[in-house]
Amino acid sequence: MSVTAFRLAAAHIQSLTDQIQEASSLNSLQESLQHAHSQVDSLITYGLMDHDDVREAHHRFHQAAKQAQDRLQLLQQAKTFSEEANPTSCKCTHQRRYTGIFYNSVELIHCLGCKGWQSIRRVIL
């Protein structure tokens, strides 16, 4: 295979990684993960993983996919708790008071700014 094919494969994997990281709602994250995994499986099938650049991009993809799975689990928990149809994730810092509603029982924060959800980093007593 040509070096160009490997570079294109690495760029494609990076693009899929970016899509996963940018997805914020439950539905878009599920769709992005499903699409990305099928695309990466296709690249493996065509033998495009035998290059250092592609392997490195594939490693970054797996790290992002793991983080996305954690976010997906959080959003599914938020959906169950809040009964929202398509909850979104929140990336705010919540370092100031009155920026979110803390639900210690389920370890979730509902952001008052972006209306998204995130897990509580430490339980508030």
Task: Offer a quick outline of the entry.
This protein has 125 residues and is mostly helical. The chain has 3 helices and 3 strands; from the N terminus they run H-H-H-E-E-E.
Write the layout of secondary structure elements.
Blueprint: H1 3-22, H2 26-45, H3 52-82, E1 100-103, E2 108-111, E3 117-119
Antiparallel strand pairs: 1-2, 2-3
Helix pairs in contact: 1-2, 1-3, 2-3
Description of the molecule:
With 125 residues, the protein is mostly helical. The chain has one domain. A three-stranded antiparallel β-sheet has the order 1-2-3.
Primary descriptors:
125 residues; 3 strands; 9% strand; three-stranded antiparallel sheet; mainly alpha; 57% helix; elongated
As a percent range, the share of helical residues equals 55-70%
Shape: elongated
Instruction: Specify the structural class.
Output: mainly alpha
- SSE order, as H and E? HHHEEE
Largest sheet, in brief, is:
3 strands, antiparallel
**Share in β-strands:** 5-15%
* Low-pLDDT stretches: none
Number of strands: 3
Strand order of the largest sheet: 1-2-3
- Count of spatially separate domains: 1
Oligomer description = single chain
Overall average pLDDT: 88
N-to-C terminal Cα separation, in Å?
59 Å
- Count of DSSP H/I helices: 3
Radius of gyration: 18 Å
